Amino acid sequence: MQALHFLQALARIARAAPKPAHSARTRQIRHAAYASMAHSSRSSRRTWSRALLHRLRQRQRPGRLLTVRRRVRIVTPITSRPEEPARAETLRQLVPGGRGMEYCNLLEETADYVQCLRAQVQLMQTLLDAFSS
Amino acid sequence: MDRDLFSHIDTDLNSISYLSLNYDHFDSALSSIVSSPSAAPTPPGPNDSLVLRELIGRLGTICNNKSASVGAGDHSANTSCYSTPLSSPPKSLLHPLPNMNPNPNPMPFVPDPGFADRAARMPCFGGGPHMAMSGQLSRVSSSQSLMDAGMTGGVQLEGELPVRENGAGGRGANNGRKRKAGVKGKGKEASLASSGTVNSKISEEDQSAKRCRPDCKAGEKKGGTEEKNGNCSENNNGDRENKNDSDSNNANAKPVEPPKDYIHVRARRGQATDSHSLAERVRREKISERMKLLQDLVPGCNKVTGKAVMLDEIINYVQSLQRQVEFLSMKLATVNTPSDVNMDNLLQKDMQQPLYRSAFSYPNQPQVAPLNSLLATNSIPNLGMQPSSNLPFDGFGNANPQIGGFWEDDLQSVVQMGFGQNQEAALSSQSFQGSGPSSSDMKIEL
Hints:
The complex is a heterodimer of chains A (133) and B (446).
Chain A (H helix, E strand, L loop, with lengths): L1 H14 L6 H18 L7 H14 L27 H7 L8 H30 L1
Chain B lengths: L1 H16 L8 H10 L10 H21 L5 H11 L5 H7 L1 H5 L14 H7 L8 H21 L9 H4 L2 H9 L10 H8 L6 H13 L1 H20 L4 H11 L27 H23 L9 H29 L7 H4 L2 H12 L7 H10 L2 H5 L5 H26 L6 H10 L15
Helix pairs in contact in B: 1-3, 1-7, 1-10, 1-11, 2-3, 2-5, 4-8, 7-13, 8-13, 10-11, 10-12, 12-13, 13-14, 14-15, 15-16, 18-21, 19-21
């Protein structure tokens, strides 16, 4: 599922007018990678996948400034939680959608996110090897 | 005396009812059970009967709901244990069960000394998830077998009714049991004194419970956490394991009579029993369980101990993975050009198969041969005709090396035939079966 989506997106990017801007293509490919991660069947129910998709769509449409947040989430000062270690805040910044989660759920989401990330990296590595061989 | 007796019943029933998940069949089970204690020396008071009802109902539902999940052998063991001195009560208890539910399995009573404790932890109340229920039952069964071996008289729910005496009273005062729902203070004691009624038996029970620690504790703790998880609809497996590991060395836990909607947690001996500390303990166990999960995911974290260092490792790993994604995307942007792709070479079977496996690592291996032919012909309709669910992956697996060339050269030529052609749609939809929503993205723009 994840691979399919990514390959589709890659094909789309490749078919699109080959922009000379290397950075633009890089950005597109990265966007496609994260989108395929979020669309994977395993992670479609996860908080981080929704947050990631939201973030991607947000970046895609810079003109619509007002649609930043449809869901008003009161982000409480989570950093002040006593039970969490000091590095929890860093983890929250890393994992998409980690700001509004409790520490327990954050760990769970991190596990799923790591799994998807690893799969995505393997997929891209394989594609790279295939294309370059 | 009466209250002790029935409080004991209550606790036992409570513990049993943990297994049940719904209370629809209270009345039927209730009536049968209520009638059973008629053999007891004293008739139950109005309050007790009410509690009894609930417990009995739960008991009935336990069998009905989770009977399927529990092994039949365990049930038979359970039932046999209960079919003793007070034969009528067990029968009455068991009878309504089949009536209430299509599942004919007998009620999974666990007549062991730690049963009350374990049962108390079962997340029956509040209709927890089946998973918790079945998990509980299986554990109970296993522990029960242990118990049966250990206990002389066996623990019978009804057997204790008449025997209930000062044991409950003495026992209750011993441990600072924590009762979240506070159904009955006596219930706690009764649950503890599942096998004995006298004070002396209390110690015996504790010892026997300790003897059967690994299983009982596991069952108990699992019950407690599971119940909580059930209420919270979270995964219970981790908690169960946690409880097994962490609680195996604790003293006998105190049974807690959990009300239906409460989170049942067992207070450990020597630990604070207020709700805050209990909730924190459960939370800590959940966190440690998740950390273990992460430890397995992140490579090289087996030797690391401690949450702080683990957290650092996790953060570093996530950062490195994200950096890798960026780096690979950059490389893909430079590499992904049609000129680099050699279709003939890529169509080689040996090349595609390992590529496929490494890329997708799906359990079902692709069928390379038909795809090779299909891809070789560069016929989009053929490619689009693959109906099997494997084929999309197969197509991609085989097309991986070709994607650059295929899509760039051949597909474009084909696409030029018509943007809205069915073949293309078929190709998109069928080749990318897994990604329904993205098929729309696949519109080839020329």
